[in-house]
Design a protein that fits this description.
This protein is of the alpha/beta class and about 210 residues long. The chain has one domain: Rossmann fold (3-Layer(aba) Sandwich), CATH 3.40.50. Helix content is about 30%, strand content about 25%. The chain contains six helices and eight strands. β5, α3 and β6 form a beta-alpha-beta unit.
Length: about 210
Amino acid sequence: MIKFEKLEHNGQRYLLYYPFNYEKGKKYPVMFHLHGAGSRGKDFKGFEDSCIIALLNKGDSPLANGFTVLPQCEDDTWFYNFSRLMDFVRFIYNEDYVDKTRFNASGISMGGYAIYQVMMNEPLLFNKAIVCCGGGMYWNAFQMKNIKFRIFHGEKDVAVYPEEARRMYSRLKDAGTNVTLTIYPECDHNCWEKTYLNYDNLKWLFE
């Protein structure tokens, strides 16, 4: 199992997973991940079924090559206390272990909406992003044009309709963004397991 800590910054609780064979003073890539509605809470119990936690605990995924930051939403949505989330993002970005050229975003469902908004607010912080079954203010997608994206959605998703992903992809493409869209034809809302269990996506994120 990879070393991790339960930490807190200005009221924001989070899990911090270390790289395998971590060396103090060395800079590492980071995946800053925002979870979906099912993982809300105050004690991290909502993370028990997380495929990302499972990958980290196995220790053989590309995530072991960098830090993974997993804040937990205590409220109904990430937007309830969005200013605190933005403060936390900036705090992590300025940590000594962060390779600022490889500070990467990740989000699923509710966290997919929030991570788009985070990147729209601070587009210069991020290098790459993976977003699963998310959406948001696609008319502001041009703000994120310099971030590289892989977007994923299930065609049969009725919790967040795939049109959300298609709209964001289209606007990012129009802005000249390096972006791909993958629609899983037989998948419903839970498209994140297909996405994160495909190590090619995680290798791309940390390249």
